[in-house]
Specification:
With 121 residues, the chain is mainly α. 74% of the residues lie in helices and 0% in strands. It has helices at 2-21, 49-82, 86-120.
């Protein structure tokens, strides 16, 4: 029974290939592959990898800067509510430090992208 199923499977798999091998090729084949990076409304745009990287960095700035601002505000709130407690002040210092580090990293990443784009073009 197994041998019969294997023969049927192979016949179904290879018979169409034999039939397609006998077809005459068309004289001219015109295939157009749309750029997957372009918006659907712009069929002839020239969007490339640098533009995609720039869009990703812009998105990260759009999300990261307001988030970092909220963390700075949270650190200020922690300072105000610390009441002289060294542990709470240490927590506020860490929150403020990492928020500033995050802002610096976001700005440096945008600067690196702009620098590379200016060198390339």
């Amino acid at each position: 029974m197994n041998r019969f199923l294997i023969i049927i499977f192979l016949a179904v798999l290879f018979i169409p290939a034999v039939a397609l091998a006998q077809a005459q090729p068309p004289s001219q084949v015109s295939v157009t592959i749309p750029n997957p990076l372009c918006p659907s409304g712009q069929p002839n745009c020239q969007l490339g990898i640098p533009d995609v990287v720039n869009n990703i960095i812009d998105f990260l700035l759009f999300i990261g800067l307001p988030l970092a601002t909220l963390v700075v505000l949270w650190a200020g709130f922690l300072y105000l509510t610390a009441g002289g407690n060294p542990e709470k002040i240490k927590t506020a210092n860490k929150a403020l430090l990492w928020a500033i580090v995050g802002i610096i990293i976001l700005m440096i990443s945008k600067g690196i992208v702009l620098l590379i784009q200016s060198i390339i073009s």
